[in-house]
Amino acid sequence: xxxxxxxxxxxxxxxxxxxxxxxxxxxxxxxxxxxxxxxxxxxxxxxxxxxxxxxxxxxxxxxxxxxxxxxxxxxxxxxxxxxxxxxxxxxxxxxxxxxxxxxxxxxxxxxxxxxxxxxxxxxxxxxxxxxxxxxxxxxxxxxxxxxxxxxxxxxxxxxxxxxxxxxxxxxxxxxxxxxxxxxxxxxxxxxxxxxxxxxxxxxxxxxxx
Amino acid sequence: xxxxxxxxxxxxxxxxxxxxxxxxxxxxxxxxxxxxxxxxxxxxxxxxxxxxxxxxxxxxxxxxxxxxxxxxxxxxxxxxxxxxxxxxxxxxxxxxxxxxxxxxxxxxxxxxxxxxxxxxxxxxxxxxxxxxxxxxxxxxxxxxxxxxxxxxxxxxxxxxxxxxxxxxxxxxxxxxxxxxxxxxxxxxxxxxxxxxxxxxxxxxxxxxx
DNA sequence: GCAAACTGGTACGACTTCGTACCAGAAAGG
DNA sequence: CCTTTCTGGTACGAAGTCGTACCAGTTTGC
Lengths: 209, 209
Fold this sequence. Notes:
2 copies of one chain form a homodimer. The first copy, chain A, is 75% helix and 0% strand. By secondary structure, chain A is mainly alpha-helical. In chain A, helix 1 crosses helix 2 (42-49), helix 1 (13-34) packs across helix 6 and helix 4 (63-82) packs parallel to helix 7 (124-148). Chain A is elongated and about 75 Å long. The first copy, chain A, starts with 12 loop residues before the first helix and ends with a helix. Chains A and B meet through helix 7, helix 8 and helix 9 of A and helix 7, helix 8 and helix 9 of B. The structure holds a DNA duplex.
């Protein structure tokens, strides 16, 4: 008779399966983030994970499914990082956001490559996940900013615009920074951003007044 | 003896070759912008162009080469559109940029899909072209903005930051707008952006003062 | 007209990846 | 110790695309 699962190497069937899945996910992050998603094959994943191809299909139906799982973990970590900072005034909230983003990208270059480059344009499913998470982060940021300002609240449409502006601007800057091999150093770039924000506010003030 | 080229159907060898190349480029824009780059094959391109596969390789070595040519034309058109507006004050420059971007995206949905979605993450070569053009547009915009402000000029680093912010924010908003199937209508969205900018300036003023 | 070049359609081998199957050896239970 | 399950390595057919070659029919120059 077929046993429904038997301990092996000191672990139950479910434990072994779960451990194999984790090995595959780890190999996915590593390969997607170094050689790139498009050039990674199921065979390469299994080789890196030290597992038979059969075990890939035990946990994932397609390579894209693995990318979804990998990206879900990457974006969760990034979201935690950019939203970690608090702050009672707008400048602190903004700086916390960009500090978290830059620090995360520099501390996790492989995962950063997955988020900033490899997931782009892979499939409609991944694209939707990508943009959904961007909107969540943008909404949260805009809402926090709005809360630090005594004046009138933003309308829903304005909050969406502000969220898009913040996320889009942040992404573009981090991408540029990563491509420039993390130059200038993080704190220097943060100061440049502060100075630029000051310049913009002064310019806007001059134009309004 | 082998003729080095003979008129055919009223056109010289070079004219015919050039016409075929144009047919292929047109088919490339159409297919890349509808079915997507990743699912487009050389065979599909030639079928859409009404040409033999042999003629593809007459003008392009790989499908990626065709994408480079296609994207070069798309980005040139977009650049002309977003930089068309003039303006002597910051708000006019910004509004001209976003108006040009939104109008172009709505008037050329197929090309917009190529720029906003399909070229992403295809290859290092395309990525570099994409980001180079983004930097060119951002620099030009930041420089124009700087010129409308009486105060001190931006440093090179600050101009880069501002350019990244503008291009990143603009891209994110257009992507969001296209995904939302061009809702709300263009002029409504532009007014929301104006209102949001006003809110930000007021908030910044309150925080500074 | 007639030969030579051009054109579009079809066909073909090479290559890669996928997804599954087989098979010999290791680990656990009785 | 011996049977059964599990594991990793290898092998294999299916499918899709690439890039080229062949071939019949058309257009041109002479």
